[in-house]
């Protein structure tokens, strides 16, 4: 039986609007991820798998939660950043390979952070999906950079504080439902997120002297832990 519900038809068309270009872009970027990974590393499978998973979740998010009819350059930029981070995943397996390229790709992914949000606001395409997509890509960038540094032996396991603090917070929220509440917008949180990624990139830079590594790591880690502690305290007090 043919579905003649006009509202359902319009909904399907609206969802297809951003989903189709997202899928096409993801396929194109998947090819580029494979080419870049093959050129820089021996490991191609890991970057391809990571980007494929990201693309599937992004497409699912667009289909379920994206309120606009067009994808917008804001989400294109975020997906490009995801492709860059996927390429970097190969450096976790091959930490000694192409250190300058790893640094430059990480720097480019970091430099594009903020552009997607600015484009979303400028074009009127801000959305909960876009904000969440950007946040998850930021978190993934931090985790990947921390693992690259750990695998390369430039720092010890304490680097995981910078890479996995947010994931630890998410894990804690499973045990403490009060932590699942929405946090208000906060400049402190955004600024420390920038400092966190910037510190990881400084640590990744081949020119960074060994004596500077631990002061940068310690300072950024303390700021990050303080920020998460402040948010945790706020949520627990708010829930009382």
From TrEMBL:
Keywords: Membrane, Transferase, Transmembrane, Transmembrane helix. Its EC number is 2.7.8.5. InterPro entries: CDP-OH_P_trans, CDP-OH_PTrfase_TM_dom, CDP_ALCOHOL_P_TRANSF_CS. It is an enzyme of class 2 (transferase). Belongs to the CDP-alcohol phosphatidyltransferase class-I family. It comes from Litoreibacter arenae DSM 19593. The lineage of its organism: Bacteria, Pseudomonadati, Pseudomonadota, Alphaproteobacteria, Rhodobacterales. One of its GO terms (molecular function) is CDP-diacylglycerol-glycerol-3-phosphate 3-phosphatidyltransferase activity. One of its GO terms (biological process) is phospholipid biosynthetic process. The chain crosses the membrane at residues 20-41, 47-66, 73-93, 99-121, 133-153, 159-179, 191-209, 215-236. GO terms for cellular component: membrane. Pfam families: CDP-OH_P_transf. This is CDP-diacylglycerol--glycerol-3-phosphate 3-phosphatidyltransferase. It comes from the Bacteria.
